[in-house]
């Protein structure tokens, strides 16, 4: 619940610029005090995220949004900073690369500081695998207890935000615990923390709306919102209900669309702000990293990683099938899978740290410079497109964001161009720092035959 004068609607309804990327945010106006606003509450989200962020709501829209964004940024810095502190060198290098390659993407930069629950789910699941591996690796008490505390914090943040987080948490914990266990040295007491997290995840799943989503899907017919659903969606649901095999076979090739849109090319906002298609090479590289990690792992490490990989394929297919929707319907968005993919990528990168091939790449200065330039460049381009979309609409192609300005924050000291320049510099510095952290830590990991032979990994800070 928020004050009436914070709620906003468009001149033609609450979605005056949704799905219309040529329309700026100027169409939004304040709701007069006392106005009744009808909203849809299907009960598909946990209440924790909203109860916490509600504490920052004031009568000023700008102040409210900035406080919530600031909260999420601080939360991300604290959680990932703690993950860096407790992790060993291999895991720390993999985490730095995951943050640099996957979280400094348009979707990561958009959602982590956003007012959307996906922010907390991304922070929680995106760091959970690190805490579990660090807990299994820990050789001193303070590191083990800190990793356990960080793991429970990351889990809590995630499950307070989204109904699918318990599923992602359980899968990530199981895979990370198996991969973090040294071959031939399974210590029962080390299973306490991951076992507790899995048990809590199962309880949270059935206590929340996750069970309902699993049984009914996320289609408008399941959420009770058929009145506002487009006719073509209702027709698609009716057709797919009668032809389930056709739906499954048509959705399998569409999984590549999810992976492509997750990393650099996917639309932002309401799915109505297209990103540059020139970044397609980055999803390809990340997919190769994850697939080849299967070859790097051995024994139960490989089994655990393959199971997590298959889960990332099966979950969206199952939800689409249960919802009677296609990949292109827009109801099951790629961002829903983003938190799980971060864990999959992080564990995949862990398999490559210490290999001879990775060492050769890491020592090639031009490869590092090119990687930094590509990631920073596409992040800057994505920020420019996103700002332009709301300032004037993407039908304006001027590089200067201050030109043709139709909307901007009231009394905000920085102009759109100022925000873009500062954001571009900040992202370039952040990506460079993350790559540097990854390089320094990766060089301290001895080359090994088994991708995860802990006995030859230094866990020193």
UniProtKB/TrEMBL annotation:
Q: Which source organism?
A: Nocardioides baekrokdamisoli
Q: Which residues cross the membrane?
A: 66-86, 93-112, 118-138, 191-208, 280-297, 304-324, 336-354, 366-385, 417-439
**UniProt key word Transmembrane helix:** yes
Know the name of this protein?
Answer: Glycosyltransferase RgtA/B/C/D-like domain-containing protein
What keywords are assigned to this protein?
Answer: Membrane, Transmembrane, Transmembrane helix
